[in-house]
Amino acid sequence: MEKVAIVGCGAYIDQGYGCPGEWRCLKAAAVGEGKFESPAAVVSFVKCQCPGRAVVPSLGMAAKLSEIKPDKIYLSSCLANAVPKCPYTSAEDLAGVIKEKTGVDVVMGTHDYH
Ligand code: SF4
């Protein structure tokens, strides 16, 4: 089973609109729906926090402390498809930085649930 890390938009998560801390990303990973081609093990869930500078170090720390390097890193749907957009970076740029710094492929989005 693929091991994945998920990065959610903390500015959105903290507003509590049924966001990743609840179930959507986790269900999609568990049952293999949305952007997951098959069920995947979520080995870390990192919350981006404005202005986003801590994402890469947080992913690194999660991998170090858990002793599990993810096979892929997913940007949550609330981050990848944000409306209004993130004022600090584009999801594409953030994905590029994560890929460059970690060497792990980044997938844009996690689920299609509402
Ligand atoms: S920097 Fe952007 S993606 Fe990160 S928490 Fe803030 S608004 Fe969300």
Keyphrases for this structure?
114 residues, alpha/beta, Rossmann fold, binds iron/sulfur cluster
Describe the structure.
The protein has 114 residues and is an alpha/beta fold. The protein has a single domain (2-108), classed as Rossmann fold (3-Layer(aba) Sandwich). Helix content is 35%, strand content 22%. Strands 2-1-3-4 form a four-stranded parallel beta sheet, sandwiched between helices. The longest helix has 12 residues, at 55-66. The protein starts with a strand and ends in a 6-residue tail after the last strand. The structure holds iron/sulfur cluster. Residues 9-11, 48-52, 79, 86, 88 line the site of iron/sulfur cluster.
- List the secondary-structure elements in sequence, H or E: EHHEHEHHE
For the record, the CATH architecture stands as: 3-Layer(aba) Sandwich
The largest sheet has its strands arranged as 2-1-3-4
- Protein structure class: alpha/beta
How many beta strands in the DSSP annotation? 4
